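Entry:
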Amino acid sequence: MPEQMMTPRPTLEGVAARAGVSRATVSRVVNGGSGVRQPLIDKVRKAVEELGYVPNQAARSLVTQRTGAVAVIIAEPEFRVFSDPFFERHVRGISRELSTNDLQLVLLWVEGESDHERIARYLSGGHVDGALAFSLHSDDRLAQLIAHSRVPCVFGGRPAASYPPGTPYVDCDNRGGARAAVSHLFSAGRSTIAHIAGPSDQTSAVDRAAGYHDVLVDADPDLFQRGDFTEESGARAMAALLDRRPGLDAVFAANDLMARGALRMILERGLRVPDDVAVVGFDDVGDIASGSVPALTTVRQDIEGMGRLMVRRLMRRLDHPEQTGADSVITPTVLVQRQSS
């Protein structure tokens, strides 16, 4: 049987010949250069499509001084990343926007402080054009190490005071969303409203707790219990609250996983939701809220959209490195009322 003939790989020269332009013009179009008139751009793109030309990434990097890759740093251990659908939704938005910009995603997560230096070395090594980091904790050094790497970065979530000044970020209106949740419970006639807060070293939890106290300025400290954003911590917190204040009639949890744990504990104690205790969460991700029984009232944030916005802010920094200052955005939240309140 004769050997199968290999079709030669299309070259810049071949594209130039097909389009009737110079090799330099093709190179500028393919590599995103300027100074080419639109009719010629259209001819080159048509030739690229007809020939199936794929740019050589190594050669392209020499021209553009870019790697075509972006690091996505999740400052949580692996089990948290895969157990909380928030992260899946966030990464999905990031991945789709990176694909739109023909960029590769390099996923890095942090199991502990020992990973900080490794990630800093990777960023400083010129492997990626930029970084996106979220779920950072206020007491870790990762934000400072990222800044020292001099790789352009956009953070997911409001920066803590320990972050480098002027850090650009994308976040939702955590405090306003929490106010809406607690105001909803108060307006429904609930008089003893508890709060299951997230970790104190994450600004989203701090802001949501602040929103709770905006409405209930003189809230009883016994109605405040902290969790860690996991479902089991929500159940434990709810048990502690019911032990201290068995007459409470509502609870606002700082995320849907903790709200689902709280709901489960309320039902295990023989109480009815919402008749005896109303429950409100925060996030509105996946089937956690809509699939709970009863379905969970919650504060919706556009998690996937925030991931896309992070990429757009990073692209702006890459395309205009001369611009300085924070390019940050706060996205709105909306209360979604279901059967739990």
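The chain has a mean pLDDT of 89.
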